[in-house]
Write a structure and sequence with these properties.
Helix content is 6%, strand content 40%. The protein has 182 residues and is mainly beta.
């Protein structure tokens, strides 16, 4: 596994070694020893899987308590995946990083606790899976508006494709009004 810190150093892009031949491919998608040595020491307690159609934007989600770190990957299609630093004590507070994750590139993204997370579906459909370091706690979930001008995420919104947002995501708050981490 190759581990690459992004512009916000705590967010890590993971690229597995893929062994391919005429039968298909094999790769390790997670090893606790490598992850704890190269990225962070967290136990994963919950795995999630979502399916979304082209133009769907999910996020920016986080939990203010029972904070979740997430290891995300795409098993079908392609998404633009984003992490926003919500740690007020961080020099990167309010900054974002984004990468294209796809079934083809097989990369994964580590989003540590203290970050908001979201993604936009670029392909006709995308299957998205992620491991979490704490359980989903809806009473502690918060949403920052996907297009907050203070964060200014450069989403690769596809012209002519309807932007699909849940009511929860449409009702997100600006970073200035958001409950954030110390």
């Amino acid at each position: 596994m190759e581990y690459t810190s992004l512009d916000i150093k705590d967010v890590v892009l993971m690229t597995p070694k893929v062994f391919e031949d005429d039968r298909g491919f094999f790769m390790e998608i997670f090893r606790a020893d490598g992850f704890s040595t190269r990225v962070a020491q967290y136990p994963f307690v919950q795995d999630n899987h979502s399916s979304s159609v082209k133009g769907t934007l999910r996020g920016l989600h986080y939990q203010i308590r029972h904070t979740q770190g997430k290891l995300v990957r795409v098993t079908q299609g392609e998404v633009f995946d984003v992490a926003v630093d919500l740690r007020r004590s961080s020099p990167d507070f309010g900054r974002w990083v984004g990468v294209a994750l796809s079934a083809e590139n097989k990369q994964m993204l580590w989003i540590p606790p203290g970050f908001a997370h979201g993604f936009y579906v670029l392909s006709e459909q995308a299957e998205f899976t992620y491991k979490c370091t704490d359980y989903y706690a809806p009473e502690h979930e918060r949403v920052i508006l996907w297009n907050d001008p203070d964060i200014s995420i450069d989403w690769p919104v596809i012209p002519g494709v309807e932007l699909l947002l849940s009511q929860k995501d449409q009702a997100g708050v600006d970073l200035k009004a958001a409950e954030v981490f110390a």
